[in-house]
Amino acid sequence: MASSASDTEAPVDDDLVLVTGATGYIGGRLVPELLDAGYRVRVLARHPERLAGRDWADDVEVAAGDAGSPDDLDRALDGVDVAYYLIHALGAGAGFADRDRDTARGFAAAAARAGLRRVVYLGGLYPDTDDLSPHLRSRREVEEILLDGGVPTVVLRAAVILGSGSASFEMMRYLTERLPVMVAPRWIDNRIQPIAVRDVLRYLVGGASVPDEVSRGFDVGGPDVLTYREMMQRYAAVAGLRRRVIRAVPVLTPGLASLWVGLVTPVPPAIARPLVGSLVHEVVARDRDVAAYVPDPPEGLVGFDDAVALALARIRDLDVRTSWSSASTRGAPSDPLPDDPDWAGGSLLADDRSREVDTTPESLWSVIEGIGGAHGWYSWRLGWVARGVLDRLFGGPGLRRGRRHPQRLQPGDALDWWRVEKVVPGRLLRLRAEMRLPGLAWLELSVEDGPGGRPVFRQRAIFLPRGLPGQLYWWAIRPFHGVVFGGMQRNIARAAQEHGAAEGG
What we know:
By secondary structure, the chain is an alpha/beta fold. 35% of the residues lie in helices and 19% in strands. Helix 3 packs parallel to helix 4 and helix 11 (361-369) crosses helix 14. The relative contact order is 0.11.
């Protein structure tokens, strides 16, 4: 088994390191590796509450702020030696390149003002051509901005990252598992050099100790060069599936292919589109120069089959630490539930229901915390599925994201089309909607004290309409509240009573 990233030999002089994107897939895994390597770590987070529940949350400094704000950046970078730039607008829709460009320029300028010793950036592996996909073209542009920013920069360029929870791995996994026979674009036979996430983390940790005079990009990849067709067949073999039947056709454009991926996998088209667009190119590392600064571990880099086996073991053991769904959906609300009912000039509309449940508070909470994903929403299933399909058609997450863990939730987790905003164990679960809506919406499920020691289950659906369309939307669906929300409350209460009876409560 490969060593962890923190085994990289790196001289650490109590340096302070800033990690941007710490709530994302790579950033959330990098932080503990840096701590293990002996660095002091500060994280920049727009929503610090989403860090609650992370094993490392109490071991880092938290700088609340936005990477697009010069003032926030100046505060976050004060006293920092090395900064990790893990920000990109994957899945952000039209205009993502402009956002990536502006954010990178602002960060490069702030890094220079702060006098940083080094910046480390994880970008995309791209071929030597100007005919790049928009996603790879933007990654290359961000790389150039950071390298020209006046602070020594290490750029690590990676292609498909193999690890439980990564968007590219989950896309391959679901395509292979759900489609024993498939029609694929002809560029499914382009060569790709995937890399295990633990090797990416090893390079990232090592990037902080590269000599100060080095400022350049490095291609990084695993030991195997495969076509996407071969990757799916190898995945099937490791997962114990039959060999897949794959037919390549010339008519599937990246746009059509991304829509198809969105239908078959939990990865929405907005994220699938840049991933699929990158597969149009052959992406193979052009050199191994990085090994001069970050040597390979004694056992070598992780091969494709071992990386897949490790990822599947994480999934089987319910130990997926971070996921692509950790990132918020563009256009989704990011503001917490307002305390002022007249917040933003509008009134909160609510469907508020309470009922006493003949069970223990622990049994009721167990059902509440397990809601969504495979357990469903204890309500009118056809209505939820239809709403999820409609949301996907309009670019939302739908009901396909599922949940990170089947029973435990923490702030920031994706939960189907919701985002966990607040968890008070045993008492309160607050979810913020990320579906496409003419307003902002929340769902609160709480356990309150009732008579005789029996809990009261309170359920609130809260909506802040956006103008007239929001008002019309609320009143149009209000007749269905009894079916949707009333049914949900009855069924959760019944499930809690059954759970309590099974537990002897």
